[in-house]
């Protein structure tokens, strides 16, 4: 090893002169024009043009083409405000517009004006909602909204508990964590090693997050048992009980059932009252993943779809789905007042001091797994204040009306075949069968399903290239690829349903 005097010394690093505009604070003299121009561009291009039926849903470029078109590099020197404004325009131009009426591709869409303002207001204030000290308004706002949502579910408004989560997957993870703590609180300190094997049950059509979160929490994917579904995609309570008995015969401990109200593909609503009976009999936590279908609770016409949800121990409900709040806005609700805190609190003395000058029960952050956390409540609260419960109900009813109209129209239309004749939610699943595959001879060919399987991907490619529409597709078990229209944008009407049908016919006319 060389002596210290002989060791190589790196040449001094040459510093560039500090830019004039590096400080993280708005200056009216420096930034007023830039901020106003950027906001005007966002309003005109993303909000108005991006939701205009005459505009494209997406201006498609391949990854190589988009990389060449956009300057995504990061350099030592910053750009001028003029070039930054150009990047704002380009970002909007080449992004998918989920607020477009013909984006019916996933379980989120629309640009709600009140939700948007609420989101912007939250971003301008930039809070972190973990103590009343730093987020007094948002702490009280959360408790108000979560209490009202519990009341809508049928839980105690003033009792129970709830939190806002970064997505429905995390909310389902909280359900598994709470169920484990409720059944075996000693695991919080002792861990899973050497403990009796625990099993979670959900349907074969449930969201994949149940398995992912069980893996994350140490259960192992083999200990998530998938329950059979019926022809409508609903969990079979008889198969559930049979699997619970089998689990007990193996010496394992069944701790939780995650039912679904509004499955991702078929939009099925599990029979909650039958599932509750099984959970009560075997002392299991009952969770309902109503991330998608929970919005129906606000409609007197449609809340019957979730009959029995008030018996559950916990519920996932995402206002950013059927209620069209801006991303992300997800909640976990429970009837148990202390389980979230008991399961997750770490009592960090530097943040959750108990000798503060105010009531520290309002320091709600310790029941979360997160520390820093956005005020996701604000955009939904602002929407609810603007529209009232009656307005939210009218929104839900219009979605179901559009879904019924679309289903009825394609039921009578040559080339369209429903996967479910009577869908329960605003998911409409169907095949488009091109004219070349409609004859008896084509249908009887052994390669019929294989050929039909290729139709939806080809039509999806065409609609994306054209920018006229976005509808997703997928297979399900032994079924070939089919389209899944999902409706949660209440600005659509029956004319839009007609357009979607006619555009699908145009896209598949020569296949």
UniProtKB/TrEMBL annotation:
SUPFAM superfamilies per UniProt: PLP-dependent transferases (SSF53383)
Keywords: Decarboxylase, Lyase, Pyridoxal phosphate
Region of interest called Disordered, as start-end residue ranges on this chain: 1-29
Example GO biological process: carboxylic acid metabolic process
GO cellular component: a single term: cytoplasm
Highest taxon, organism lineage: Eukaryota
In-chain residues carrying the UniProt-annotated modification N6-(pyridoxal phosphate)lysine: 321
Entry's transmembrane regions: none
Cofactor: pyridoxal 5'-phosphate
Gene Ontology MF, one: carboxy-lyase activity
Pfam families: Pyridoxal_deC
Protein family (similarity comment): Belongs to the group II decarboxylase family.
Oligomer status and interactors: Homodimer.
PANTHER family associated with the record: BLACK, ISOFORM A, GLUTAMATE DECARBOXYLASE-RELATED
Protein name: Aspartate 1-decarboxylase
């Amino acid at each position: 090893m060389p002596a210290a005097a002989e060791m190589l010394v790196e040449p001094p690093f040459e510093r560039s002169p500090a830019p004039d505009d590096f400080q993280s604070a708005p200056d009216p003299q420096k930034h007023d024009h830039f901020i106003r121009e950027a906001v005007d561009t966002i309003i005109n291009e993303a909000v108005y043009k991006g939701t205009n039926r005459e505009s494209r849903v997406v201006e498609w470029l391949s990854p190589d083409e988009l990389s060449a078109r956009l300057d995504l590099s990061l350099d030592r020197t910053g750009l001028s405000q003029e070039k930054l404004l150009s990047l704002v325009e380009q970002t909007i131009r080449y992004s998918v517009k989920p607020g477009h009426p013909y984006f019916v591709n996933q379980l989120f869409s629309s640009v709600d004006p009140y939700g948007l303002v609420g989101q912007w207001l939250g971003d301008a204030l930039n809070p972190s909602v973990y103590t009343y000290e730093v987020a007094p308004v948002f702490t009280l706002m959360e408790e108000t909204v979560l209490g009202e949502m519990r009341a809508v579910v049928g839980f105690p408004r003033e009792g129970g508990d709830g939190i806002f989560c970064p997505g429905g997957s995390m909310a389902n993870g909280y359900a598994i964590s709470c169920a484990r703590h409720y059944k075996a609180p000693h695991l919080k300190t002792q861990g899973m090693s050497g403990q009796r094997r625990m099993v979670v049950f959900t349907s074969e059509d449930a969201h994949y997050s149940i398995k992912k979160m069980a893996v994350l929490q140490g259960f192992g994917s083999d200990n998530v048992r998938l329950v059979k579904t019926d022809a409508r995609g609903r969990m079979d309570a008889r198969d559930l009980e049979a699997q619970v008995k089998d689990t007990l015969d193996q010496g394992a401990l069944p701790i939780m059932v995650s039912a679904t109200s509004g499955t991702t593909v078929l939009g099925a609503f599990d029979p909650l009252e039958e599932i509750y009976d099984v959970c009560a009999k075997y002392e299991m936590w009952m969770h309902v993943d109503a991330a998608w279908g929970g919005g129906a609770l606000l409609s007197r016409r449609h809340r019957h779809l979730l009959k029995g949800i008030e018996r559950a121990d916990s519920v996932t409900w995402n206002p950013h789905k059927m209620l069209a709040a801006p991303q992300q806005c997800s909640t976990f609700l429970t009837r148990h007042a202390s389980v979230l805190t008991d399961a997750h609190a770490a009592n960090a003395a530097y943040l959750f001091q108990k000798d503060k000058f105010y009531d520290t029960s309002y320091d709600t952050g310790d029941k979360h797994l997160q520390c820093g956390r956005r005020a996701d409540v604000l955009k939904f609260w602002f929407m609810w204040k603007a529209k009232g419960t009656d307005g939210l109900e009218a929104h839900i009813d219009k979605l179901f009306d559009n879904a019924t109209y679309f289903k009825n129209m394609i039921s009578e239309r040559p080339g369209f075949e429903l996967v479910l004749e009577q869908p329960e939610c605003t998911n409409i699943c169907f095949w488009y069968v091109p004219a070349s595959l409609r004859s008896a001879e084509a249908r009887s060919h052994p390669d019929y399903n294989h050929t039909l399987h290729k139709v939806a991907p080809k039509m999806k490619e065409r609609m994306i290239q054209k920018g006229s529409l976005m509808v997703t597709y997928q297979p399900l078990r032994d079924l070939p690829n089919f389209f899944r229209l999902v409706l949660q944008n209440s600005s659509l009407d029956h004319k839009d349903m007609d357009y979607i049908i006619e555009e699908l016919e145009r896209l598949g006319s020569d296949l």
